């Protein structure tokens, strides 16, 4: 990103198109999701909107141009995430599966693998979904811990020119796919004889070998298809191994760099919507007094502090996503700041905005607590801040020769 903070005409157009799509389709979807109590039926509500997004070219917009897609730069990605997550963050998370699942394909895939694995997501119709099957029910923060103490429990046993995968996975969007027979593509983090490895299972390998144990009922990102599944006897050709056996831990960490940065944009979306609600309340409600409550200094201070923190997280997220997607060496550190600072700021800001509104906010029908429920997810998804992301920051800061100015390019 050149150092200009004015959106280009193309970015202004993207903002307009993304907002229009969100208002037309994602707002009504979010209302329908809130009204549906069953987690599976709720997640299936997204499918027709998914198809519209694919037809409008938004899925292709997630695939980088060198691999046949039409992705823009990191600021474009941040704009799209913010506009859509303002209406339905769960939809964005579900749709962004290929962003994480294909990242290791871009990094180490052979030309043949790239062509085969990316092809379903260049479609102009349908609703292709991908899952990055990393997290497991018994824990993920220590996924690279050596056995038998723990770590990744999903195993892939060599069998001729195949691996046979058995294990349980949880949390990744669309582990069951739309019909319970798996997504179009699942990148599986598993243990092979050579260590932690990544295998790509395609639909034909998964069908009949995915048992859904439970669809999870999330309080905030309720429209995500989030489940616990058992993979049993999934036969994946050796040709679907990404890179080398034992390379999977590093590839997995790299796969979550850009998605970590994107959490800052999700956090911005939740904060901006909450701010709009609280600001409207403060400028229009007197609560029985003589003046709108924004006339009280304490209320105005809460709003002003919230707005400043929203602006800070937005700019950090633009910078972090731009760096992460362009291969800037600052990307990994900035992505961690966007993830950790962005997610924790969102929880704090929205809690402050609840204080502005007062008890009226403590009603499910009032459009504020839902934003807190969304924000509460951000410190714990995409690698929890405590178990994963702060440890990554610790490792960077403790590394010999760490340069505090490098992330800003001021060396
Ligand atoms: C909507 C949604 C979408 C998701 N999408 C995906 C996805 O696409 N793919 C995917 O694989 N997962 C996904 N997840 C799961 C998510 O990425 C989690 O952040 C990930 O599983 C790690 O969780 P955790 O760190 O809490 O791990 P756990 O292993 O469950 O750790 C739990 C807690 O233990 C503590 N802890 C454990 N080990 C340590 C340690 N070494 N040091 C310090 N503290 C420690 C920390 O407090 C940590 O938070 C998703 C989850 C949700 C809700």
TrEMBL record:
<dbReference type="InterPro" id="IPR046373">
    <property type="entry name" value="Acyl-CoA_Oxase/DH_mid-dom_sf"/>
</dbReference>
<dbReference type="GO" id="GO:0003995">
    <property type="term" value="F:acyl-CoA dehydrogenase activity"/>
</dbReference>
<dbReference type="InterPro" id="IPR009100">
    <property type="entry name" value="AcylCoA_DH/oxidase_NM_dom_sf"/>
</dbReference>
<protein>
    <submittedName>
        <fullName>Acyl-CoA dehydrogenase</fullName>
    </submittedName>
</protein>
<keyword id="KW-0274">FAD</keyword>
<keyword id="KW-0285">Flavoprotein</keyword>
<dbReference type="InterPro" id="IPR009075">
    <property type="entry name" value="AcylCo_DH/oxidase_C"/>
</dbReference>
<feature type="domain" description="Acyl-CoA dehydrogenase/oxidase C-terminal">
    <location>
        <begin position="246"/>
        <end position="385"/>
    </location>
</feature>
<dbReference type="Pfam" id="PF02771">
    <property type="entry name" value="Acyl-CoA_dh_N"/>
</dbReference>
<dbReference type="InterPro" id="IPR013786">
    <property type="entry name" value="AcylCoA_DH/ox_N"/>
</dbReference>
<dbReference type="Pfam" id="PF00441">
    <property type="entry name" value="Acyl-CoA_dh_1"/>
</dbReference>
<feature type="domain" description="Acyl-CoA dehydrogenase/oxidase N-terminal">
    <location>
        <begin position="9"/>
        <end position="122"/>
    </location>
</feature>
<dbReference type="InterPro" id="IPR037069">
    <property type="entry name" value="AcylCoA_DH/ox_N_sf"/>
</dbReference>
<dbReference type="InterPro" id="IPR036250">
    <property type="entry name" value="AcylCo_DH-like_C"/>
</dbReference>
<dbReference type="GO" id="GO:0033539">
    <property type="term" value="P:fatty acid beta-oxidation using acyl-CoA dehydrogenase"/>
</dbReference>
<comment type="similarity">
    <text>Belongs to the acyl-CoA dehydrogenase family.</text>
</comment>
<dbReference type="GO" id="GO:0050660">
    <property type="term" value="F:flavin adenine dinucleotide binding"/>
</dbReference>
<dbReference type="GO" id="GO:0046359">
    <property type="term" value="P:butyrate catabolic process"/>
</dbReference>
